[in-house]
Amino acid sequence: MDPKRSRSVRLSDGHFMPVLGFGTYGSENVPKSKAAEATKVAIDVGFRHIDAAYAYQNEEEVGKALREKIADGTVNREDIFYTTKLWATFLRPELVRPALERSLRKLQLDFVDLFIIHVPVAMKPGEDLMPKDASGNMILETVDLRDTWEALEKCKDAGLTKSIGVSNFNHKQLELILNKPGLKYKPVCNQVECHPYLNQSKLLEFCKSKDIVLVAYSALGSQREPNWVDKDSPVLLEEPILNAIAKKHNRTPGQVALRYQLQRGVVVLAKSFSEKRIQENFQVFDFELTPEDMKAIDGLNRNLRLLKLQFAVGHPYYPFSEEY
């Protein structure tokens, strides 16, 4: 079997997605150049799935890193699986293709491998990533997700993206798309927060039943950004059970957290800008967790969501008021 295929999962549209991805999000205080350096390191150590987004505001840097690695012969374009995301200010159907074309221009690429709706909640269109009113509240609007989805389907037909999917959707929102009259392509994936404290077992089961791949972000906990994450939330990588299992296998807790997802059939993203960690995060294919290990990690679930999208509470498409 082709090793490239064995480390990939076949999507419902026939394309293949590498099961381990590199996340390019950097917090505001991290210089954009860091994303470029880290992406090059990631490709050098073996990552082929690069997860990015318009909202991360570093696609120019990430694109440059990709092109340098293609130019120096490390990879070909077809070896790379590149994901970008449609931000909340572009959910109106007429804004979808221009938003993707804007990302492609930044990247200087002809197509992306995957284009996903970043969040189901629409914000006021415009150049502001986080449009706020005079009193500092986010300006939201309601766009029918089925209309947005139709515009993504057109991007796929136009060859601007090979696959299309969603992120931060609950099972009812997935059903809304799946049951849409005249659906042409279903979402190949749903990218959600997923780690041992929020293991998403019900959503995972639902996605598997619909041939939708669950992609895990914040799989190592999260960067604990004060704007997004409660500073008092527990630190996943300090979890004693994770550390005990790591010690037993002579691994790091991070490697165990990533391996856990792979063994559940979840595609997992690992984000780090440290060269040592990027290397460590890729070393997850040469050991296996026992059924007892898996059960112990399953037992850590406490439905603890780090990224609550607080600004969207009360919006008709707020995704996290459903159980899954």
Give a quick set of tags describing it.
two-stranded antiparallel ribbon, 35% helix, 324 residues, globular, alpha/beta, 8-stranded parallel barrel
What does this protein look like?
With 324 residues, this protein is an alpha/beta fold. The protein contains 11 helices and 12 strands. The strands form 3 sheets. The chain has an 8-stranded parallel β-barrel with strand order 3-4-5-6-9-10-11-12, surrounded by 5 helices. Strands 1-2 form a two-stranded antiparallel ribbon. α2 (32-45) runs parallel beside α10 and α3 (59-71) crosses α4. It is globular and about 55 Å long. The two termini are 36 Å apart. The mean pLDDT is 95.
Task: Give a topology summary.
Layout: H1 3-6, E1 8-10, E2 16-18, E3 20-23, H2 32-45, E4 49-51, H3 59-71, E5 81-86, H4 93-107, E6 112-117, E7 122-123, E8 140-141, H5 145-157, E9 161-167, H6 171-178, E10 189-193, H7 201-209, E11 213-217, H8 240-249, H9 253-263, E12 267-270, H10 275-282, H11 291-298
Helix pairs in contact: 2-3, 2-10, 3-4, 4-5, 8-9
Rounded radius of gyration (Å): 19 Å
Sequence of secondary-structure elements: HEEEHEHEHEEEHEHEHEHHEHH
Number of helices: 11
Spatial ordering of strands, largest sheet: 3-4-5-6-9-10-11-12
Distance between the termini: 36 Å
Uncertain stretches of 5 or more adjacent residues: none
Bin the helical content: 25-40%
Arithmetic mean of pLDDT = 95
Q: What's the main sheet like?
A: 8 strands, parallel, barrel
Shape: globular
Could you give the count of β-strands?
12
Instruction: Give the DSSP E fraction (strand runs of 2 or more residues).
Output: 15-25%
